Structures are given as structure tokens and as C-alpha cells.
């Protein structure tokens, strides 16, 4: 077992995941820490590879618009990855500060609520991707779940943006309300 000094601190984003995983008393949160970490890493890799392709495609072009487009791409990546890691960072911070050590039941409830909000954000990003799928790339709506898929395709594109924004704000609201 690690000594008390190691258990009370962590260094940076990557250290927060194992720290929060170890310290949490909620199995649901532990599942989110594992799944959310993998999702965040996967999304970060996808955005990094897509940025490389974007830079390669626009390398010959010059001008401020191209630079702005690249910067906007990075901002969008942060807006997707940030809420995926936020529940883990909130839980790690709470445990590091010791505010949850006095009442383990309330601590596990806080962890569980943030896990649910994190899973809801991940689901909202998935639904947003379905809603924003261009008509040329939409798959057939036959079979199981076809009616739901057809309904999601019929939604206006701004709804696809609104869902993750609301879910990200919900993560912060859950954090504030559960403190």
C-alpha cells in the first residue's frame, strides 16, 4: 500500500485518473473513470490525427482564415475532451482536499452523481454526432431502432450542438449542487 503522502496528492491530469479511481467508494464512478478516460484519450487521438490531416490539406494555403480554422479545431477538441475528464478531476480534487473523507456515504453519492453526468455527456456527444450526420452519409432506418434513428436524423442540426452544451453545463451544475 502506498504511503499517506502519495495517497493525498497526484500530479496533473494523467495522475488524477488513477488517484480518483483508487479513492472513490463508488463502483459506478470507477467504471466512469475507466471508460471516460479511454473515451477522452480516444477523442484526443482522433482530433490530433484530424488536425494533422487538416494541416496537411491546408499547408499550401496561406492567410488568417486558415490559421483561424486550425485554432477553432483545437478549441472544439478541448470543448469535447474537457467535459469528459471534468467528473474525474472534480472527484480527485474533492478527495485530495479531504472534503469527502468526513462522510464516506456523501462522498460516494457525489462520485456517483458525477459519473452519471459524465456518462450523460458522452451519450449526448454520440446523439449529437447522429443528429449532425449529413444526409448523404446517413444509413438506412430499417430494423431495430429505425424509428429512433429516423427521428434523430429529422432534428435540426443546432439541436446536435445544444445537447452536449446542456450536458456539459449539467456536469458543472451537479458538481455545484452536490458539494
Automatic annotation (TrEMBL):
| Regions that span the bilayer | 31-56, 68-92, 113-131, 151-174
Q: Does the entry feature the keyword Membrane, yes or no?
A: yes
Q: What is this protein called?
A: DUF8056 domain-containing protein
Instruction: Please verify whether the record's keywords include Transmembrane.
Output: yes
Q: Which UniProt keywords apply?
A: Membrane, Transmembrane, Transmembrane helix
Please give the Pfam families that the UniProt record associates with this protein.
DUF8056
Output the InterPro entries linked to this UniProt entry.
DUF8056 (IPR058369)
Domain (DUF8056) ranges: 7-178
Amino acid at each position: 500500500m502506498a504511503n499517506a503522502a502519495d495517497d493525498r496528492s497526484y500530479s496533473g491530469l494523467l495522475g488524477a485518473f488513477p488517484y480518483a479511481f483508487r479513492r472513490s467508494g463508488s463502483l459506478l464512478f470507477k467504471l466512469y473513470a475507466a471508460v471516460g478516460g479511454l473515451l477522452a484519450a480516444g477523442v484526443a487521438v482522433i482530433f490530433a490525427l484530424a488536425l494533422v490531416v487538416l494541416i496537411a490539406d491546408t499547408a499550401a494555403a496561406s492567410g488568417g482564415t486558415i490559421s483561424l480554422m486550425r485554432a477553432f479545431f483545437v478549441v472544439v477538441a478541448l470543448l469535447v475532451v474537457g467535459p469528459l475528464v471534468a467528473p474525474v478531476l472534480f472527484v480527485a480534487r474533492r478527495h485530495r482536499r479531504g472534503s469527502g473523507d468526513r462522510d464516506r456515504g456523501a462522498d460516494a453519492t457525489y462520485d456517483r452523481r458525477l459519473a452519471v453526468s459524465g456518462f450523460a455527456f458522452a451519450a449526448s456527444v454520440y446523439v449529437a454526432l447522429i443528429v449532425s450526420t449529413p444526409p448523404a452519409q446517413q444509413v438506412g432506418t430499417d430494423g431495430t431502432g429505425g424509428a429512433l434513428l429516423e427521428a434523430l436524423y429529422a432534428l435540426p442540426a443546432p439541436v446536435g450542438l445544444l445537447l452536449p452544451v446542456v450536458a456539459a453545463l449539467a456536469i458543472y451544475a451537479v458538481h455545484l449542487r452536490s458539494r
